[in-house]
Structures are given as structure tokens and as C-alpha cells.
Write a structure and sequence with these properties.
mainly alpha, Endonuclease III, domain 1
Length: 222
């Protein structure tokens, strides 16, 4: 069983050290989704649910060439959009949300992605994760995006003892300096893909090994 740190002071210290190490390991860490305007980022982020960024970028390359603006998407039929995004998975729900989101933005927000969490959460297909991606990358508003990599690594490091994304987001905001909120997620994603993988983490190659209580279990069972 992973030993969880008991005080926020110790959690802050461990996280600060982890961030400093990963900042050196992943100097190019940044959002991987390709986009040229605010609505394209919303579309790409919605498509990224249960799908790799690489696959999303392959799909959106042609999708955004055909339909570059929110107005183009608002005029699409669900059936036609489903065909375009089929390979991203959950294509029916994603198509429905994207078209509804485009129409909502046009009807209520003059075709622009709003820059505050309350309005973003009113847009179809936008949950807290998507909203925080948009706030951080469109408006430079500090926000922590909690995805599967963040959940996994925070639990392994003994920082969290929950998989509830909202709880983790709220607690991390108390533990991490605001200036690092946006980049923190990209460090977690980069590390989660390269080293701290879901099934067979490469603990012996991990530079935060000394800070990770979960590593003992993984190494012992090899």
C-alpha cells in the first residue's frame, strides 16, 4: 500500500522537487494538440477524450482545412461530422457536442470561446478538464488540468489518495505555485507517457524514483 504524505508542507516540498526535476527532463513540454484559433482548440480537446493527441492531430489536419471556423462547424450535420471524426472514438457523442457547442457560442457568445469557467461549463461537451485547457492556453489564466496521467502520478507519489479529478484539482491548487499550474499538467503527461506508464512503469529510468513510494512495489514484483 502506498504511503501518503500527511501534511501539506511535505506535499509541497515533494511536488516542488518533482517539478524542478521534470522541468529539466522535459524542457519542451507543452500542449500537443494542433490548432489555429480558439474554437479549433475546443474541438481538438473534445476529440482528445479517450483518444491520443497524435490521432486527434491526424484527424483535425483535414477537418480544420475543410471547416476552419466556428461558423463552419455550426452548419454541419451530425452525420457528416461523425464520418470525419470516426477514428477518434465515441464519435457520435463528440459530433453532437461539437456542433451544439458551435451553435451555443454563436448564439450566446458572439462566436468566441468565453474566458471564464462559469460560461465555459455552459457549453455542450465542455467539462472542467476541457475548460481548464482552454483557460490556460487561450487566455493565460492559471488552471490545472487533471487527466489520467496527473491522477496516476499523484497517487503513486503519495500526494493524493483519490481518483476524483475535482478533488485533486482543488488540492493541487493549494500545493503548487500558480505560475506552474499550466505547465505542471504537461510535465505529468510527458512523464506519464515516457516513464511512468500505466502498466509497466520504467522505475529504474525515473529521476524522481527517490520520491516515489509506489516504485518499491513495481520493482519488487518484476
Amino acid at each position: 500500500m502506498i504511503k501518503v504524505l500527511k501534511t501539506n508542507k511535505k506535499k509541497r516540498e515533494r511536488l516542488a522537487e518533482v517539478i524542478n526535476i521534470l522541468r529539466e527532463d522535459y524542457p519542451e513540454a507543452r500542449i500537443q494538440l494542433h490548432y489555429k484559433n480558439d474554437f479549433q482548440l475546443m474541438v481538438a480537446t473534445i476529440l482528445s477524450a479517450q483518444c491520443t493527441d497524435k490521432r486527434v492531430n491526424l484527424v483535425t489536419k483535414e477537418l480544420f482545412r475543410k471547416y476552419p471556423t466556428v461558423y463552419d462547424f455550426s452548419a454541419l450535420s451530425q452525420e457528416s461530422l461523425e464520418k470525419e471524426i470516426f477514428s477518434t472514438g465515441y464519435y457520435k457523442a463528440k459530433a453532437k457536442h461539437i456542433i451544439a457547442a458551435a451553435r451555443k457560442l454563436i448564439d450566446v457568445f458572439d462566436g468566441k470561446v468565453p474566458g471564464n469557467i462559469d460560461d465555459l461549463l455552459k457549453v455542450p461537451g465542455v467539462g472542467r478538464k476541457t475548460a481548464n485547457v482552454l483557460l490556460g492556453h487561450l487566455y493565460d489564466i492559471p488552471a490545472i488540468v487533471v487527466d489520467t496521467h496527473v491522477i496516476k502520478i499523484m497517487n503513486r507519489l503519495g500526494i493524493m489518495e483519490t481518483k476524483n479529478a475535482e478533488i485533486i484539482e482543488r488540492e493541487l491548487m493549494e500545493l503548487i505555485e500558480e505560475k506552474d499550474w499550466v505547465i505542471f499538467t504537461h510535465f505529468m503527461i510527458s512523464h506519464g507517457r515516457a516513464i511512468c506508464t500505466a502498466r509497466k512503469p520504467k522505475c529504474q529510468q525515473c529521476r524522481v524514483l527517490h520520491l516515489c513510494p509506489a516504485s518499491k512495489e513495481f520493482i519488487m514484483h518484476r
